[in-house]
Amino acid sequence: MSETPVRSVRLAVVQLDDYGPWTVTPAPRRETDLQALQARLYADFADFVGRDDGYAFFGRFDNMLAVANETPAEAFGRFQERVRNRYPVTISVGIGSGSTPLAAVQTASDLLQAAGSAQDRDRREVLRCDQTLAETETQDITIGHFDIVDATSAYTDDRNAVDAEMAIQRSVIELKAELRGAHESVAQFVGGDNVIGVCPALSVETFREVIDHVEEETGVRYRVGIGRGETAHDAGRDAKHALEVCRESGDRVYEANSTHGSDRIPDPEFADD
Amino acid sequence: MSETPVRSVRLAVVQLDDYGPWTVTPAPRRETDLQALQARLYADFADFVGRDDGYAFFGRFDNMLAVANETPAEAFGRFQERVRNRYPVTISVGIGSGSTPLAAVQTASDLLQAAGSAQDRDRREVLRCDQTLAETETQDITIGHFDIVDATSAYTDDRNAVDAEMAIQRSVIELKAELRGAHESVAQFVGGDNVIGVCPALSVETFREVIDHVEEETGVRYRVGIGRGETAHDAGRDAKHALEVCRESGDRVYEANSTHGSDRIPDPEFADD
Amino acid sequence: MSETPVRSVRLAVVQLDDYGPWTVTPAPRRETDLQALQARLYADFADFVGRDDGYAFFGRFDNMLAVANETPAEAFGRFQERVRNRYPVTISVGIGSGSTPLAAVQTASDLLQAAGSAQDRDRREVLRCDQTLAETETQDITIGHFDIVDATSAYTDDRNAVDAEMAIQRSVIELKAELRGAHESVAQFVGGDNVIGVCPALSVETFREVIDHVEEETGVRYRVGIGRGETAHDAGRDAKHALEVCRESGDRVYEANSTHGSDRIPDPEFADD
Amino acid sequence: MSETPVRSVRLAVVQLDDYGPWTVTPAPRRETDLQALQARLYADFADFVGRDDGYAFFGRFDNMLAVANETPAEAFGRFQERVRNRYPVTISVGIGSGSTPLAAVQTASDLLQAAGSAQDRDRREVLRCDQTLAETETQDITIGHFDIVDATSAYTDDRNAVDAEMAIQRSVIELKAELRGAHESVAQFVGGDNVIGVCPALSVETFREVIDHVEEETGVRYRVGIGRGETAHDAGRDAKHALEVCRESGDRVYEANSTHGSDRIPDPEFADD
Predict the structure, then answer these.
(1) A272 pLDDT exceeds 60?
(2) pLDDT for residue A139
(3) Which residues of chain B from 49 to 108 reach within 8 Å of chain A, CB to CB?
(4) Where do runs of H (alpha helix) occur along chain B?
(5) Is A29 on the interface with D (CB under 8 A)?
């Protein structure tokens, strides 16, 4: 019966330990220093996760997310060490698996919360992993890479920077909510007019319904490229290629049907010396 | 008549030149590399602006904002040079002044848009400044530093990371919209549960009305510390101190009534050698 | 006969492509921008190599070194991609194996040179690997971690910064030359008064002779902690621990006789959720 | 009598506080993390000093140098704050003035040493300035930008990376020693085959004697471009342009006779909106 292995997707939640209190101890720290600290820590995290073809999201900066199918739990301990050695703050990590991205985030969050409060002074550098990690294989990930049709002409070149940002953010919230509420997906803003949805195996038609819904609710027209693969990068690269097809063809939904495996990393050449 | 000098606040909009097309040329670039690029460029920008006691906001990453009362226009040219020398992308800058933060952003955006589209391949490293900059003095800035009452217990420790983030983001949008629509202010999320509002000389009572409005609309309870000063950092530091008073007293609105000028930077000691 | 597998140590040479000409095109670039570019690229490289328990050295910044026993050749292609996506320059990589660290560097350099000049405009992003990599197992690495006895009191607190630096550098050159000339080792300055030697399986007595030689030639007294292990980090961590023993005991040479495997990275905890 | 103002050059020594002990507390920290920490701190320092047209040098990383004619002493306090807010270490700063660069470094070092040992646990975030700073005007700086004739073909493309580096470093030491011993100058390696000499008003002929001396002693042929200006960047930019003239003409010494003031930073455009 259960000869088919249970398959799951793995997400990690990274939390800065007791960060809020630190930012005001002994007195409130300069805001631009905090902004730069958070941004550089996130950049290091993106590099770390990207090494294994994962995806990282800044979340709220003090709570970051990663899709980390290929990153072993032990490697997160290595990242905790790096942060400790290079920043005045430390991090805790929860790694969850689940049949959907949302379920995996829920598990990761539960594990962290069970270890103590984010502002518990005694909860530092916790690394908690869902027990089922070791027992399951990872499943393919579906990534939808969304952007807004004519975002530059309709927003960036037309409205002031604040109003363009607000219009886009309102639509992003709606997109995130629809993907989360109806489809157990985790969607994140990644800059500009781009949103990445980490999803279960949703159909092309479902993606179309999602962007139609967002347009009805907010008037903002998205298009989406869809990719599927073993890692976030594999799926996401195909999704980006598919989105390029949309840009050229005018289609609003497209699923990549091929992989682009080695199109960017040169193979090493082995030579006699 | 015009013996009173016209006073203004100055904001800058920084735009990555032709960035969207670059991210997919010759093929879509790896997402984590883009995330790290954007975050490090923003961190450098925060450092640059912070040097002159300004504030920086990540905006949409490809469109960033700064409150830059004390940063001369020429210095932004220096920052453009730095980006060109260290990144594979370049930036354009518009600097606007106005009687309110929103008016200043509008001017800065108009100047950039007049110079060409954000995706115009021939518009690179533009640096456009509102002519009135040279003729006016800067006015005091009012900063409201907002955070959410019991955010850790109500969100971070209670909901999964995705749902906590969405609830906070919905309230942030409402707060930004209210400050923008009713009060010509520019508000930006700065991580965790923190929002910074760059405002005209709003009263304490107005700030109270704003957070009451947000609570009515979203159910999320904010509190706010208020500071005023010549630079974003001066005002913002006082706002942070005021927010600390709120945290201790339980008040939801408090305005700092003193400056904390040299409480963190040691004075250099001059000594005979 | 050759049932014993041939064992080798692997080093990588990373070279910025056509970098000198770039620094003056179209006009000489600002020196501090170049300094920051080089330093951040090196920091990213250290992070990259450190992920697999390797060691990185800044070399001349436009030519960097790594001990990379555990880093697959393909991963260097990933690092090349990262540099291309985040910097205005690109890199080429040669990976060599050899029975000694010096032999491995020679092979890596030969491979790069065979692919073209460092200032050949057509040689970009080359990744060349010694063919024997695939056929051999890596051997244990011996690391000597050297520092200067009483460096702070004798140099930093006693001489001006320039004279302290020159005295130390002279001794470093002597130490490097002795380790290279007599012992096929690659030694690199790593800051302060610290030098790391990547060595074949030298004896404790040989290390003692090396530091005696340096003292005779330059008057600078070094001590050294010795570690051996499968990776640079394994060997280097033990060497650091051994150097701590020297500091406490007053001995000038000490070899660690145990591993300190998991003393710094917490094991992940697996929990039912 | 003293109607001519006394003029001086200003250099700063930046010292990581109690850094050596920190690197081994509670146990030796991972070397690549330390390398990345040091390199990023130096990059931040280069950015900081470069903002005011100064020059920064990595020195021994735990002891860095800056030519800082235009950076006010107070601004270094701002940099100390930034380091404290973003790194797990802190820094102390001594700022010295003198009639020669070497004299300024001596004063800066004396001031730091008088404040306590570099490994004194109670000496943290000291900022000491030469009293005469406030009383004197800065003098013009002379920069010699040196590189090696045919370095790529003679070293990088011809020897292995380790031997190329050693040959270059030996010559660098000789160049530094000659400039320091005979000419009260501070010379620093800045990567590749480049050395920057911060000098009193040495003549072209003196620079020629210096490189002739180095060639006699080490066999390494340098050339040098010479620039003079109010700031390190002004002088150094001219020196770089002069070195370009050498590269084209084959001359080994050339002094720039013009400034290239605004050739790289676009002037901001002021526009009516």
Answers:
(1) no
(2) 79
(3) 49-50, 54-63, 65, 102, 105-106, 108
(4) 19-23, 31-50, 73-86, 101-115, 151, 161-183, 204-218, 232-249
(5) yes
DSSP per residue, C95-136:
EEEESSHHHHHHHHHHHHHHH--TT-TT--S-EEEEGGGGGS
Question: pLDDT tens, A9-27?
Answer: 999 999 999 999 999 999 9
Q: Which of B168, B179, B166 is CA-nearest to residue A172?
A: B166
Structure tokens at B105: 């952003």
**Cα–chain-centroid distance for residue A138?**
17
What tens digit of pLDDT does each residue of B185-235 get?
999 999 999 999 999 999 999 999 999 999 999 999 999 999 999 999 999
In Å, how far is C18's CA from the nearest CA of chain B? 15
- Mark yes or no for CB contact B273/D81 under 8 Å: no
Is the confidence at residue D157, as pLDDT, over 90?
A: yes
Residue type, D64: M
CB contact (8 A) between residue A105 and residue B42: no
Binning pLDDT at 50, 70 and 90, where does residue C261 land?
very low
Q: Say what the pTM is.
A: 0.94
Minimum Cα–Cα distance from A37: chain D residue: D86
Alpha carbons within 13 angstroms on the beta-carbon side of residue D61 total 21
Query: In angstroms, how far is the first alpha carbon of chain D from the final one?
Result: 55
The predicted pLDDT at position B143 comes to: 97
Residues of D in contact with B75 (CB under 8 A): 51
User: Which residues 204-233 in chain A show a CB within 8 A of chain B?
Assistant: 232-233
Contact A36 D86 (CB under 8 A): yes
pLDDT tens by residue, D51-78 = 999 999 999 999 999 998 889 989 999 9
Does the beta carbon of B122 lie under 8 angstroms from any beta carbon of chain D? Answer: no
- Residues of chain A with C-beta less than 8 angstroms from the C-beta of C74: 265, 267-268
Contact C33 B85 (CB under 8 A): yes
Cβ partners under 8 Å of residue A59, min gap 6: A65, A188, B161, B165
CA dist A8 and A100 (Å) reads 7
pLDDT at A67: 96
